[in-house]
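pasting for the record
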Amino acid sequence: MVKLYVGGFPLDTTEMELVQLISLHATVSTIKIVRDKKTRISKGYAFLEITERAGLDAAVDALDGYMLHGKELRLNMVEEAPPAPVRSYVKVAPRTGPPKKMRPRRNT
């Protein structure tokens, strides 16, 4: 599986419209249109999982710059981020010595 970024489409574009357009060149496994958390309105970009790299390349070649309802699409392959480095934590040794004396509370 490879990931594809599609941006610049009109805000009223549906998942089905994008899948139909991309499916002419590649097999789409999943799609996620990014939406505003409060209004649920599309932000105009999406991420798709494509089953084969050749299909992704064909879709990018054919549709990058394509006009969809008066807006120019941008398509790019999503580069996978390298894995985060493993962080090691050092446990701090417990404090040794006599316990601290607590001051009595004042009643007011």
